[in-house]
Queue: 3 jobs
Job 1
Amino acid sequence: MTRLANCVAGLIVAAVLTDPAWAQTPPADSWALVWSDEFDGSGIDPSKWDFEVDCWGGGNEERQCYTARPENAFVQDGRLQIVARRENAVGPALPVHLDDALPETERGKLAAKPFTSARLTTKGKADWTYGRFEVRARAPEGQGAWAAAWMLPSEERYGAWAASGEIDILELVNQGTECKSCEDGRENRVFGTIHYGGEWPRNRYKGKDTPLPSTDDRFNVYAVEWQEGEIRWFVDGQLYSTLTRKDWGSKAVFSKLPRSAPFDQPFYLILNLAIGGNLAEDTNEGGVSLEGFPKTFEIDWVRVYQKPRDETGH
């Protein structure tokens, strides 16, 4: 469950009900708002978000260094702006948790990348087991731009990635580029995916994509409803994918695993804009285009709902 007090959630509900965007994706009956960020303040709220700072490339050969600089992430006009810039940068070669796992003599190495961007996370600040997670966002266009809102387990109960799972609320990759498998020949799909199975390289994934509904401002509302034994994906209120416990599993080194493992433990939220990487560079026009920088992933709001304990059993 969320770590925020019920009184704070009540105040959030009262504020959100006055927002015209509320009507765009009414949650299912009995979902109650428990956490949100409307990005209405003057800056990024440090009580809700932290920054990951490294030049690792996300394990996908991405080409950016993630920073905590205001040039790469800031709030403007009621929206979070995650900005990827074409500039050389040097930073930690590994994220903290991977660097700490190395022998002391091998820690602290640096890496250089040709782009900078930002990756925000609620790890250590808020996490949830089950809920409805909504993000209203607009992704940048261009070959190599990879915007995402997704979730990882707080404690990796069943082992390192991906044995403990990953839930991708949205991945918007190479938007607007030439796409032979897309309906109008241009990339306009959202990908909703889970990762599970064993630890890398024994990991597996499963998911689905769907064309984005057309909107005047290119903003869409993406949602995942995650309940025990079932995960559902929506865009602008329309269901486009459902997976159940029959579709996933974990190869953790335990003799007995819960039926819904690994998706039965607290997960936290991540928002990021990557440049390049295996998924982006191996599809559509290929590689990374150097045109159109800086590129901005805009997030209007993030909202988390849960059902009462007597309905979910949690």
Job 2
Amino acid sequence: MNLEVTESPIPADEELVAAQVRAHNRAHTEAVFRTLCVFARADDGTLIGGLTGKTYWDYLDVYFLWVAPEHRGTGLGSKILAAAESEAIQRGCKHAVLNTFSFQAPDFYPKVGYEEVGVLHGYRGIDKLHDRHFLHKLLGD
């Protein structure tokens, strides 16, 4: 047996590993992964904010939420997140989960109903160590 550590995997090898984990997961769950994206555009069509994630197994899993710097503090992030949560509820989701770093928006999410369920300390940044915050929200009733 040989072990290979690499930053540049052969794409087929990387996909094989992912496919095998997905196959194992399908034996225990439903394969109901659906992409959920919300985009906010200025009148000229410029993207000024957005969210990417997936819904599956009664959860909205938020991957990225971004608002252009000049639109932060205007409520746009809350509107984008609320639109994603509304669609997730329509899809039958009961929960939302996400994570954010201490230099991103850990103070924003509790204001819109998210509860911190865990934190990992010690992510090395350029200037100091950062924390990674994990958050959860019950959707609907």
Job 3
Amino acid sequence: MLDAPSPVTAPRIWQVGALCRAVADALDARFNPVAVRGEISNFSRAASGHCYFSLKDETGQIRCAMFRRAAGLLDFAPRDGELVELRGRLGVYEQRGDLQLIVESMSRAGQGALFEQFLKLKARLEQEGLFDAARKRELPAMPRGIGIVTSLGAAALHDVVTALRRRVPHIPVVLSPALVQGAGAPADLVRALSNLYRLTPSGQGLAADLAPKKGATQSPCIDVILLVRGGGSMEDLWAFNDEQLARTIAKSPVPLVSGVGHETDFTIADFCADLRAPTPTAAAELVAQPREVWLGALALAGERLHDALLRQIDSQSQRVDLAASRLGRPSALLARQQLRLGHQAQRLRYGALSDLQHKASLVQGLEANFPEKVRRAAAAAQERLARARLRLELLDPRLVLQRGYAWLADLEGSAITRASQTHIGQALRATLADGEVDLTVSPQRLI
């Protein structure tokens, strides 16, 4: 006999929002906090400062949000394709029901350690002065030879050679090949640069192994060196962050241009070089002014030299003609000098006569006006004397005494101006308008 089937339990009916919250709670209890590594995709930064992107690998991807507070703590600028490590909390964005990771911190993965090494080496070499602007040299306007250090199979070599052939086909180019990637690349780059240094003006005469043998062609003199490589990841360009290579670049006897990677790539070699170019082609163009420019400048200089020479010839011809005319007729020069002398004598006589006449006129004027001026001066003096006498009389103290005032003094002649200067029984003398009166101070002197 078969058992009766058990009744089927009906599933719980959820509200959508409640289900999302339940899933979020389950994720929080099961996973959070969480750390994940992946590649950034579709990175964007909103005007509010929040960052939104996806993190993906070969098998999946997850939406991520990094709010402004956490984004403000970043020490680098995230970009698409960059491998990073994230720490945060998983959750559900209820409005869309999407799974998302709220990022609390982000750091580079893979190249993070390399980048830290790069910063430490850069700071140490900068402190030693290898990056100082004072040691940077100007590029030669017309180099006698150009040296190139790069890989034989690199696309950068083709780009540089093409640019140089187009712009300066007359300048010799010396290639010193080297590895530009891998563990052995730094030492190979140092060797390649050292080989080119022996071809510079300061090294040509010192390198015995480069002395031309009989029938051999003299090596060109290198006045500028290009260190170039195409773009790549930080790991691909790591050979150009080597300390020994940096010191070798800093010791270059001629200006050195670094054209490593793309415009956004920077290596230690770029900071040590005399000039950094954004690309290998740009490095070639910096040291190679087009031949047409120099030919035009040469033609212009030739025209100016020709014009200056013609002007100089004309000027010298005029001087010769003038000298010949003077040498051929000295009597004419003598006649001109005599004429000038006669003019000067005439002017002297006229000037002396005119001065005497002027002086005589002044004397006559003085003789005619002298009596009147004496009379006027005497009258003015008498008038000034009368005014002074009047002012002096007005200051006479006797005029004050005549108005009823008296001059009071003790017997020694000292003026008494205050009652406090007297004492009872003191003898005083009062001077009036018509004489003097002796007085004695009584007890009722003070009122």
